[in-house]
Amino acid sequence: MPPKILVLNGPNLNALGRREPAVYGSVTLADIESGCQKAARDAGYALDFRQSNSEGELVGWIQEAMENTAAVIINAAAYSHTSVAIHDALRLLDIPVVEVHLSNIYQREAFRHHSHVSAVAQGVICGFGAHGYVLAIEAVARLHNTKAS
Ligand code: DQA
What we know:
CATH architecture: 3-Layer(aba) Sandwich
Structural class: alpha/beta
Helix content: 25-40%
Bound molecules: 1,3,4-trihydroxy-5-OXO-cyclohexanecarboxylic acid
Strand order of the largest sheet: 2-1-3-4-5
Number of helices: 5
């Protein structure tokens, strides 16, 4: 069984495709998932891709990643800016964590400029749309390869 990357998506990302197309484009979460599945397969990983509108469910899934998970890629969406619970859960992990945002949060409203996830992430990718998820998978593979060699 290949090592597993867990990709977590927060609130309202299930509405991509219909949600603020001027900001997020026309890509759907299903499109993003299929791009991630391909990138993960190419890099030799299994992929577990999930979305929740609930902060508690996301915390539970992060805790699950303490077992049998090689890395977490997370777009916590609005919870990035508000959730100490998600920050604390991510602190439990000793695997790479990569934060992703579709939009460039620093070009947007001031309340989006701070993320509670960033302090506990190995790196942050924002502003590249759906391609950011693929970049995150490539970053995870690079981190694992560097650690192994
Ligand atoms: C987002 C940016 C957040 O500020 C926002 O609340 C989202 C999506 C992004 O992917 O650009 O829901 O995380």
